[in-house]
Amino acid sequence: MLIVMDKSAGPEELAAVVERIEKYGWQAKPIPGGERTAIGVLRNKGPIDPALFLDMKGVRDVIPVSKPYKLVSREMHPEDTVVELKNGERSVTIGDGKLVLMAGPCAVESEGQALEIAHAVKEAGATIFRGGAFKPRSSPYSFQGLGIKGLEILAKVREETGLFIITEATDHEVLDLVEEYTDIIQIGTRNMQNYRLLRRAGQAKKPVLLKRGMWATMDEFFMAAEYIMSEGNSDVLLCERGIRTFTRHSRNTLDINAIPFIRAESHLPVVVDPSHAAGRRDQVIPLARAAAATGVDALLVEVHNHPEKAMSDGPQSLYPEQFAKMVAGIKDMNIPVK
Ligand code: PEP
Ligand code: MN
Predict the structure, then answer these.
(1) Which atom of ligand 1 is found nearest the CA of 239?
(2) Confidence (pLDDT) at 50
(3) Considering every ligand atom, which ligand is closest to the CA of 131?
(4) Is the CB of 211 within 6 Å of ligand 1?
């Protein structure tokens, strides 16, 4: 349930409502808006009688929230969330109408590789560099990432190029480390329902990009984001990266329908990863253009300077020149890019 306060309501009236919510054993989540504050009621087991709050001073309206996900839902938070990254003078916002480009290799392989790709994607218009230091691989014999060394390289990339960094946290221990180094913490597809990890990400002081599980329904996806937000982190980005279907012409199927659905249901920024959806280079640019046409807030794209020698996901990685073409093509569609 959402308790909407009068424009003129002051801190005392707000505090009285919070106190009453807590008296019933529920949790109050104040949501400041442009004009007025609303207070979300969480952790109630069943429906709440609006009359419990309608008579209070400063309360304008009481709106039931029908969805199981509360903090994630647009019902609770009608305005779009804008996530801001800051580093000294530099900042980038995600979710305010201009497309943000996140690009880089699947995995950080060496300092030279990361820096060369970072300079190239920056030149093409990216503001955020992606690269895995801890890789969740299907085979235990595949390259697992450079670990801490990879995080150090990412820090160097940030220092030298001014790009912000996104990298994946594969477990609790890694999340502690990643939180120190990165600007955005990525929670991968395989961990979308790792609820303890989601809670830990919710306690982090950095934004979280949550990838949709490869077989997750929208409710499951939203509830995973709710885990993060319920711990206090409201900077969550929802990333569609393709789901498993019966097709063989691509690694996964980009669920384009999910984009307008997420927009309608949630206020959180929407990101699309065309690389993992496609699994093959020739489909990445068309999928990126399709996603951009639906008005997503950011694209997360794998780019490698030598994809044929890449230690992971080479077949789906764009050459830097292709990435530059992709960006130019999107700009030609009159889509504003950051
Ligand atoms: C990745 O971004 O390299 C990755 C492993 O992605 P996903 O979790 O979508 O498979
Ligand atoms: Mn990858």
Answers:
(1) 9
(2) 94
(3) 1
(4) yes
SS (H, E, C) the chain: CEEEECCCCCHHHHHHHHHHHHHCCCEEEEEECCCCEEEEEECCCCCCCCHHHHCCCCEEEEECCCCCCCCCECCCCCCCCCEEEEECCEEEEECCCCEEEEEECCECCCHHHHHHHHHHHHHHCCCEEECECCCCCCCCCCCCCCCHHHHHHHHHHHHHHCCEEEEECCCHHHHHHHHHHCCEEEECHHHCCCHHHHHHHHHCCCCEEEECCCCCCHHHHHHHHHHHHHCCCCCEEEEECCECCCCCCCCCECCCCHHHHHHHHECCCEEECHHHHHCCHHHHHHHHHHHHHCCCCEEEEEECCCHHHCCCCHHHCECHHHHHHHHHHHHHCCCCEC
Domains within the chain, CATH numbers bracketed:
2-63 (3.30.70.1140), 83-332 (3.20.20.70)
What is the pLDDT at residue 45?
A: 87
Pocket flag, ligand 1, residue 276 (CB < 6 Å): yes
Instruction: Supply the pLDDT for residue 36.
Output: 87
pLDDT, averaged across the chain: 96
> 188 CA distance to ligand 1 centroid (A)?
5
